[in-house]
Amino acid sequence: MLEIRNLTKRFGGLTAVDDISFRVAKGHIHAVIGPNGAGKTTLINTISGLYRCDGGSVWLDGADITDIPTDQLVYRGIARTFQNLEICGGMSVLENVLLGFDRYMDKTLWPTLLRSGRLMDQERRFTERAMHLLELVGIEDLAHQKAHALSYGILKKLEIVRALATGPELLLLDEPVAGLNPQETDEVAELIRTLVADEVTVILIEHDMRMVMELSDWITVMHRGKKLAEGTPAEIRNDPRVIEAYLGGALK
Ligand SMILES: Nc1ncnc2c1ncn2[C@@H]1O[C@H](COP(=O)(O)OP(=O)(O)OP(=O)(O)O)[C@@H](O)[C@H]1O
Ligand SMILES: [Mg+2]
Question: What distances in angstroms separate CA 27 from CA 20, 76, 176, 193, 203, one per listed residue?
Fold first, then answer.
């Protein structure tokens, strides 16, 4: 579904993503792991068009999407979450989710001005769908609370729900369970499983190795901007290079 070819991103003299190539199969949970500073977030930022790459290309279903800006990728079915949350604190939980439906909204002027029946129907439909998504992660009771008043764990879930509202075929998750307690972590893991059963493909960046090993179909390991290894969870867990560069520390 997604193919990364020789992707490179530099910040001044630092090559944060260094000639990375890999493929993500449709319907897979594909993890990208590696030590702090390995270049995982930069990779996601480059795939999702937030950064322009300095070399290489990104292909989605056979189409070159390398130069498509980030706000256009949503129309190609790509959504993401951010390692550092990007929630609008002054808005309610429900309003944050409704932002995700933006691509489906009728933006023509007349229905808006006239508050037409069609627009009201549309609002009702989106609100119902948003409430359903909030139910998936068990936070529907908080729909009308302002986001800034809520705990970190709730906001992490909200961030995923908002990405889901765009109706993605490919979801990029940057550390979705960082800072969550074990119960919340299990809930998010369960949600990811549900999504994949629903034919969403997931790229998962995560330091929680138990979750990565349980969920992933395939793992790409990054180290200092480069691809160190790739394989199934069993292969990666037993790869001496990965253990030395990362897992030795991550599993302690
Ligand atoms: N906007 C930026 N400007 C300059 N350097 C950056 C920028 N973003 C990241 N870097 C550097 O690029 C390297 C890769 O960082 P990145 O955030 O991609 O790592 P990461 O694998 O996501 O790490 P972590 O697991 O800690 O989130 C680091 O050395 C970082 O300091
Ligand atoms: Mg990161």
Answer: 21, 16, 19, 11, 10
Q: Which ligand is nearest to the CA of 38?
A: 1
Alpha helix (H) residue ranges in the chain: 40-47, 70-73, 93-99, 109-114, 117-136, 152-165, 182-197, 209-215, 233-237, 240-242, 248-250
3-state secondary structure of 203: strand
Q: Would you say the CB of residue 29 lies under 6 angstroms from ligand 1?
A: no
Q: Check the CA dihedral 17-21-23-29 and report its sign.
A: negative
**What are the pLDDT digits (tens) for 24-53?**
999 999 999 999 999 999 999 999 999 999
Q: Whose CA is nearest to atom 5 of ligand 1?
A: 11
Does an H or E element contain 21, and which? strand 14-24
What CATH number belongs to 1-77+169-177+201-252? 3.40.50.300
Q: From ligand 1's centre to the CA of 10, what distance in Å?
A: 10
* CATH value of 79-167 in 3.90.1170.40, 3.30.559.30, 3.40.50.300, 3.90.320.10: 3.40.50.300
pLDDT digits (tens, 9 = 90+) for 90-135: 999 999 999 888 776 666 656 666 666 666 777 888 899 999 999 9
Measure 228 CA to ligand 1 centroid, in angstroms.
17
Q: Considering the entire predicted model, what is its pTM?
A: 0.91
Q: Both tokens of residue 227?
A: 């691809």
Q: Across-strand partners of 22?
A: 4
d(CA 237, CA 50): 31
